[in-house]
Design goal:
This protein is mostly beta strands. It has strands spanning 23-27, 30-36, 42-53, 58-64, 76-78, 86-88, 90-92, 114-118, 127-138, 150-160, 176-186, 190-195, 209-211, 226-235, 239-245, 250-256, 265-272, 275-276, 284-289, 294-301, 310-313, 316-322. The chain is 0% helix and 45% strand. The N and C termini lie far apart (107 Å).
Length: 324
C-alpha cells in the first residue's frame, strides 16, 4: 500500500492604498517683482501653484485681500523708509482684465477671482497639481524720485466651490491660505529730446529718447551767424550731460576745392544754457543736475577769414546719462 502525501502552500497577497479625503495639500507663497520706470507702464504675469491630495475633481477659486492699503481698489507697494511714499498697482485676472477682489468689498463676481478646476488623482500617492496665472500692472507717471524698494504683502485665500454659488463654500473657512509678496524698485530714468527753441516733448508714447538728431543749417557761412535748439531732459535721478565733437570744435570741409594753401576749417562756439563748451579735446562734462528741464544749445560761427569754397560740417554728440 502506498501513501502519497502532497504538501503545498499558496499565498496570495495584495494591497490597496487607502484614498485620502480630498484636500489642498500645498498652496505655495508667491512673489511678484517689478522694476518701475516712471514714464512707462509695467506688466508682469506670475503663476500660483496648488497641490491637491485625494481623488475628487474639485472647482476652486482664490481671492486676494487689499494688503497694506486695506483696499482691493487701491493696492499700493510702500517705501518702508517713508510710508507716505507708495506705488499704486493692480492685481488682475488675466482672462477677464478685472481686478482680483476679496469678500471685504462685498461679494466678488466670477470674473473678479482666480478660478479653475483641480483634477482628482486616479491612483496613489493621490496627488494632483494645477497652476493659475495672475497679472500685476503698474501705471506710468506716479513717481518723481528714485527710491530703493517698495513692498506690499497680501493674503491669498483658496476655497473649494464656485464664487457665484455661495452655498458651496464658507467665506470664513478657506481651504488654504498663502502670502503674495509684491516687491519693486524704481530704476533711474532719463528721457531726452532735441526740439525747436521753446517747443515741448514730441507727442507719442514716452520713452528714453524721443528725437535723436537735428541739423543746424547755417546756409552761406558768415561770422556771427547763430542757430539754436533746446535739449529737453526729464529724469528721476541725478544726471550728467557731456558733449563731444567729431572735429574738435571746428566745421571741416566735406566737399569743395582741394587747395592745400586755403584753410579748410571754420571755427564755431557752442554754448549750453549760455555756458561755452570746450570741444577741443574729448568729451566735456557740461552739466550735473537733478533738474533743468530745458537746456538751450546754441552754435555761433566765429570769424574765419578766407576759407576754401565748399560744404562744411561737424557732428556734435550730446550724451545724457542717469546715475545708477
Amino acid at each position: 500500500m502506498k501513501t502519497i502525501l502532497v504538501l503545498g502552500l499558496l499565498v496570495l497577497t495584495s494591497s490597496i492604498s487607502a484614498q485620502p479625503a480630498t484636500s489642498i495639500r500645498s498652496f505655495e507663497d508667491a512673489e511678484l517683482s517689478f522694476a518701475y520706470i516712471p514714464n512707462r507702464d509695467f506688466t508682469i504675469t506670475g503663476r500660483l501653484d496648488i497641490e491637491q491630495s485625494g481623488g475628487e475633481t474639485r472647482d476652486f477659486f482664490i481671492v486676494i485681500d487689499g494688503g497694506q492699503s486695506g483696499s482691493v481698489n487701491d493696492r499700493a507697494a510702500i517705501n518702508p523708509v517713508d510710508p507716505g511714499d507708495a506705488v499704486s498697482y493692480r492685481l488682475v485676472v488675466p482672462s477677464t482684465g478685472m481686478t482680483v477682489r476679496d469678500f471685504s468689498s462685498g461679494q466678488p463676481s466670477a470674473s473678479e477671482v482666480l478660478s479653475g478646476t483641480i483634477p482628482g488623482a486616479t491612483s496613489g500617492p493621490w496627488r494632483s497639481y494645477v497652476s493659475v496665472d495672475l497679472r500685476l500692472e503698474v501705471d506710468a507717471g506716479q513717481l518723481e524720485d528714485s527710491e530703493p524698494e517698495y513692498a506690499d504683502d497680501l493674503v491669498m485665500r483658496l476655497y473649494y466651490g464656485r464664487v457665484n454659488d455661495p452655498s458651496s463654500y464658507n467665506p470664513n473657512n478657506p481651504q488654504a491660505t498663502a502670502t503674495l509678496s509684491i516687491r519693486g524698485n524704481v530704476d533711474p530714468f532719463v528721457q531726452v529730446a532735441l526740439v525747436e527753441a521753446g517747443a515741448s516733448f514730441p507727442p507719442g508714447r514716452p520713452g528714453p529718447v524721443r528725437v535723436t538728431e537735428r541739423t543746424m543749417d547755417f546756409g552761406e557761412l558768415t561770422a556771427g551767424s547763430q542757430q539754436r535748439y533746446d535739449l529737453l531732459v526729464d529724469a528721476n535721478a541725478l544726471f550728467t550731460i557731456s558733449v563731444s565733437s567729431e572735429n574738435s570744435g571746428v566745421m571741416r570741409v566735406v566737399s569743395g576745392d582741394d587747395d592745400p594753401d586755403v584753410p579748410t576749417t571754420v571755427p564755431y562756439r557752442l554754448r549750453l544754457n549760455g555756458q561755452s563748451v570746450d570741444l577741443s579735446g574729448g568729451a566735456s562734462v557740461v552739466g550735473v543736475s537733478l533738474s533743468g528741464f530745458r537746456w538751450a544749445i546754441e552754435a555761433e560761427i566765429l570769424p574765419f577769414g578766407v576759407a576754401a569754397a565748399g560744404d562744411y560740417e561737424d557732428v556734435v554728440l550730446i550724451t545724457v546719462s542717469a546715475d545708477q
